Amino acid sequence: MGWNLSGVRHLELPMSYALQTLWHERSRYASGVLAVAFSAVLIALQCGLLLGLFKITSIPIDNTSADVWVGSTDVQSVDLGKPIPISYVSRVAGTPGVTNVELYIGHFANFSRPAGGTELCFLLGSEQDYDSAGSPVMLSREQRDALTLPDSIIVDESDVKRLGLDNPEGKAKINGKEVKLVGTVRGLKSIAAPWVFCSLYTARHLLGFLMPADHVTYLLVRCESSQSAKDVAAELRAKYGDDMGAYTATEFSLRSRVYWLFRTKAGIAIGYAAFLGLFVGAVITAQTLYSATVANAKEFAILLALGIPRWRISLMVIAQSFWVGVIGVGLAYPVCLGLRAGARQVGADVDLRWEVLLGTAVVTICMALISGCFALRSVRQIEPMSLLR
Amino acid sequence: MPSLQGVKLVRTFGDGTARRAALQEVTLDLYPGQLALLMGPSGSGKSTLLAVLSGLLEPDSGHVYADDDGQMRDVWSMTAKERERYRRKHAGFIFQGYNLFPALTARQQLEIVLKWGDGAGSGDAQRRADEMLDRLGLSKNKHKKPAQLSGGEKQRVAIGRALVKNPTFMFADEPTSALDWENGQKVIELLRDAAHQRGASVLCVSHDHRILPFVDVYYHLDDGHLERRSLPPSE
């Protein structure tokens, strides 16, 4: 194989010889490869599990069909939006690429159980037309129709008992006003405050002065295409960044999860677990590469005697560490996918999105490369004189 | 005119009462196209002299002058980088252990020297490696790894690795000691060809007296003192 770039040619040789050596002495390198794979599985699963868990924080975004969410400036999470003036509709609707704008209310409210006791809930009020951008996609036509009745609500079936709505009438109070359960859904469960779905009218009625009449929490935007959604969000941020925050649904969903991930310090837990995994992987990989290089010290010493610069040999060790990383990650991926399938069986969602897989690969391969750098001390110890008796 | 000169070389090891002189004012000249044999008892300083002459071990005093593209330069006055370049350009080494990379084929053992040392391209390195292996009678073995080669074949590959960059000097430390005489003879013939046909200066350290009929010059080193001895009459 010929390379025109001399810099690339410098890398071609150590890369291919390193891979060949790795394969030939696979039993020697196995512990390093397995250590990298272990680190990669640990990191990917930790991140995937937490992202899966924190999907709950972005349920209103992930289960509706808006392309862009417009809220208060720099809003960190869907449940942290502050009221914005309805008059912003004209700004949003006038942006090229926008096909429709809807009003949306999301606000905490006080839920009183019929049998006594209160619970904090999160009220989500949207229009309930059949093609509404803010109504959860799993609501049937009948359920949407039912929600148009004043003070009617829908909750996830897992929250019915918790909210005391398992009474025959299905009645309770929100902010002191009576509401009636008109249906339940699956897949919209909560960790803390239950999501309560209702119409925009009901939300306003229940919130009262908490949501001024000329304000809403979000403007939900439909766009011509997913690409135009990115452009619309970017343009709104550029033009009106001081007044409003605008994010595509994907961006806002991730933003909400990441916020709660770190707000709850769960990110720190990930960091510790990932660091431990990386540390163990790095030590084993460094030791594997060190002993492998020591085992080939005489061959390398010959090259040094022949005047081959020491950095060439160092480059080969680094190339070996790179391949140890790549093969380790390659082994880790199918294991991660298998464990995800296993987790699904017991109802846990491991979100192995491409960012998690790519991030895992980058981190673990970097870890392997750093281990290679530590193993370079073995190269520094090689002396051609050792060949002479 | 010699291509390599060692002048009054002194090298000692240890301190105080344990101090031992491996080389005591050793002087010798090596000429292009000449196969020189260096013999002597164990511990007489043979390998030390080879290391000092080849730029691997610095002497306590004395000079090593080597032909560097027509100019005689003191190897031990060069910087470490210059000496590395000098060895890369001019020096070939063969040791008792073959020290071949277990994962690489015979061809790749040679290519690595050409690519990493000469900066040769893939095609050029492969062609030159194949030519050398053909000359060593190893053309059928070029895709074999060391584990698939006999001891003699491995040493020939090691010689090929030393010769493939066409060095000015060849330094061989006990190249036949791990081989039977049939293979040892082939190896010494190859070293002689390197001197006579390629014009290299070859210095071979050995205990094996059967080599004597093949060499041009014979030195004997004992207790750090070098003596040139006459060769036995050829039969």
In short:
The complex is a heterodimer of chains A (389) and B (235). By secondary structure, chain A is α+β, with helices and mostly antiparallel strands.
Comma- or semicolon-separated keywords:
heterodimer, A: 389 residues, alpha+beta, 2 domains, six-stranded mixed beta barrel, two-stranded antiparallel sheet, 13 helices, 11 strands, 52% helix, 17% strand, elongated, disordered N terminus, B: 235 residues, alpha/beta, Rossmann fold, six-stranded mixed β-sheet, four-stranded antiparallel β-sheet, 6 helices, 10 strands, 27% strand, globular
Question: What features would you describe in this structure?
Answer:
The complex is a heterodimer of chains A (389) and B (235). With 389 residues, chain A is α+β, with helices and mostly antiparallel strands. Chain A has two domains: 169 residues, no CATH class; 206 residues, no CATH class. Helix content of chain A is 52%, strand content 17%. In chain A, the strands form two sheets. In chain A, strands 3-4-8-5-7-6 form a six-stranded mixed beta barrel. A two-stranded antiparallel ribbon of chain A has the order 2-9. The longest helix of chain A has 36 residues. Chain A is elongated. The N terminus of chain A is likely disordered. Chain B is an alpha/beta fold. Chain B has a single domain, classed as 3-Layer(aba) Sandwich (Rossmann fold). In chain B, 32% of the residues lie in helices and 27% in strands. In chain B, the strands form two sheets. Chain B has a six-stranded mixed beta sheet with strand order 6-7-8-3-9-10, sandwiched between helices. A four-stranded antiparallel beta sheet of chain B has the order 2-1-4-5, with helices on one face. In chain B, a hairpin with a 2-residue loop joins strand 9 and strand 10. In chain B, helix 3 packs across helix 4 and helix 5 runs parallel beside helix 6. The longest helix of chain B is centred in the last third of the chain and has 16 residues. The model of chain B has no long low-confidence stretch (mean pLDDT 90). Chains A and B meet through helix 1 and helix 10 of A and helix 1, helix 2, strand 6 and helix 3 of B.
